[in-house]
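Collaborator request, handled under Task 6.
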Amino acid sequence: MIEMKIRKIGNSLGAVFPREALDRLKLREGERVFLTETPDGYRITPYDPEFERQMQLAEEGMAAYRNTLRALAK
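Structure tokens returned to the collaborator:
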């Protein structure tokens, strides 16, 4: 377990990640992370380009079959 402290950053609040956590997550400055809720609490994960690609394909499919999906939803 790694303890983090919430700090004031300008007009906002933020958490500063210790070097150990950054190394384990393989994060660098400017990269995005996602805070997701799980049954056990919250999970911080780095940006996943594969998930982004899958979502883009899903959005393209939904756009292509928009009328069919709308009819099925009735």
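The cover message to the collaborator said: "The first strand starts at residue 6 and ends at 9. The radius of gyration is 19 Å. Please let us know whether this matches your experimental observations."
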